[in-house]
């Protein structure tokens, strides 16, 4: 990966230092940094994600955020982290093989998120590994796998989720759908695995509760990452008479879907989980203005000077238009991890996985004018959520576009963490407590 000149990098780090609020914690460089005199050994962190195949763009977008975040906290001195990449090709078996390799290489923290099926398998594998080998226990920090079950009936003391789960995101979108009084017919479509199924299940439940007058004219699941031509799906959406499409699709499955639906002549609205990047705005084009909605923890046009400074620093670090997908939650994840490592390092025995986990349960972090905290009950991170609508760059509230497309997202809802929070059924047993 190409790095910017040293002066530019230092300028980025200095610009972001004003936004960060975690004194004393630090992470090291990307891969196998040389340990400096007087500094403790780095904590090894394994990044397990699809870096090849149909969802490689999603994996690389995460990597850029984690890399920049580690560079920022690394510059502060103190605790170090060694960040390593493992390509799981988007497959469960490859992910489990990567987990074993990472543990053998000395990893004590695992990062993954772009697939709830993979996340569920990693949780099970890490639970078993930590029972069998308490001297080599590992943590799992999840930044995007948002099947609600992962912090409910499948919750684990070793798993921490930094993204809002699907039901939380759906509730945020529903705030906008409730006010769409012209909406009478909606088409639900998603990827056929645990997350996609959860999205459509919750969409049906919340529509029945909040908009019982809206007719669901389509309810469909499709294979994950295997559909190359969405034209047949687009034709069904167009012929259904739907006025809006609701989807949790992500990555190439979203880009190809919206492109096909647009080409089919559909001129209705899109309510999406991830329609704000990875080629979707450019694929939709002018037809998306005022009609494409997305929900996230943060977007570049959040109206705050700290937010704008953070986004500009990211774009300086990664100037290619196609690299423009900023995940603030992933940067907050690294800040929280650094904070927890720093606290665990002061305990007898040092930063073991159990010590880091115990500290991470109490993490409170902020960056770019946004903040969040970990809920100890179920290890579900609590933070504001925003809903944005697509518009032309330069329109009121849209100083920044997405991926050089000329289109950005204007914030129409900024939902406080206290309102975004949802109850949990988690009954967690912590092995580090008597």
Automatic annotation (TrEMBL):
Protein keywords: Signal
Keyword Protease: no
InterPro entries: BCAA_transport, Leu-bd, Peripla_BP_I, TAT_signal
Domain Leucine-binding protein: 42-394
Signal peptide segment: 1-28
A Pfam family recorded for this sequence: Peripla_BP_6
Similarity-based family: Belongs to the leucine-binding protein family.
Name of the protein: Branched-chain amino acid ABC transporter substrate-binding protein
Organism annotation: Ottowia cancrivicina
């Amino acid at each position: 990966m190409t790095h910017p000149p040293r002066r530019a990098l230092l300028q980025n780090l200095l610009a972001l230092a004003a936004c960060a609020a975690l004194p004393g914690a630090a992470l090291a460089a990307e891969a196998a940094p040389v340990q400096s005199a007087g500094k403790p050994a780095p904590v090894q962190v394994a990044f397990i994600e699809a870096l090849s195949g149909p969802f490689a763009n999603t994996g690389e977008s995460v990597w850029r955020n984690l890399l920049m975040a580690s560079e920022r906290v690394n510059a502060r001195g103190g605790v170090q982290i060694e960040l390593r990449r493992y390509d799981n090709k988007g497959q469960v078996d490859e992910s489990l093989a990567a987990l074993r390799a990472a543990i053998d290489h000395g990893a004590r923290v695992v990062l993954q998120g772009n697939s709830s099926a993979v996340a569920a398998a990693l949780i099970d594998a890490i639970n078993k590994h930590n029972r069998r080998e308490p001297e080599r226990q590992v943590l799992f920090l999840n930044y995007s796998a948002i099947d609600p079950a992962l912090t409910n009936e499948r919750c684990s003391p070793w798993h921490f989720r930094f993204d809002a789960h699907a039901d939380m995101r759906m509730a945020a979108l529903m705030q906008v759908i409730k006010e769409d009084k012209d909406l009478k017919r909606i088409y639900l479509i998603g990827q056929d695995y645990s997350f996609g199924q959860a999205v459509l299940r919750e969409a049906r439940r919340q529509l029945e509760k909040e908009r019982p007058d809206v007719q669901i004219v389509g309810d469909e699941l499709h294979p994950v990452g295997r559909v190359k031509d969405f034209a047949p799906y687009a034709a069904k959406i167009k012929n259904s008479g739907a006025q809006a499409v609701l989807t949790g699709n992500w990555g190439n499955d979203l880009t190809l879907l919206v492109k096909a639906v647009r080409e089919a002549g559909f001129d209705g609205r899109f309510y999406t989980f991830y329609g704000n990047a990875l080629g979707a705005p450019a694929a939709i084009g002018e037809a998306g203005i005022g009609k494409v909605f997305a929900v996230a923890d943060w977007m570049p046009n959040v109206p705050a000077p700290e937010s704008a400074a953070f986004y500009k620093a990211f774009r300086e670090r990664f100037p290619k238009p196609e690299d423009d997908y900023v995940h603030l939650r992933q940067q907050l994840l690294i800040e929280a991890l650094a904070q927890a490592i720093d606290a665990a390092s002061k305990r007898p025995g040092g930063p073991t996985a159990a010590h880091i986990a115990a500290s991470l349960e109490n993490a409170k972090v902020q960056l770019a004018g946004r903040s969040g905290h970990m809920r100890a009950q179920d290890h579900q991170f609590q933070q504001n959520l925003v809903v944005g609508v697509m518009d032309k760059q330069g329109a009121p509230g849209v100083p920044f576009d997405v991926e050089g497309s000329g289109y950005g997202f204007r914030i129409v809802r900024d939902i406080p963490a206290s309102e975004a929070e949802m109850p949990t059924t988690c009954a967690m047993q912590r092995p580090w407590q008597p």
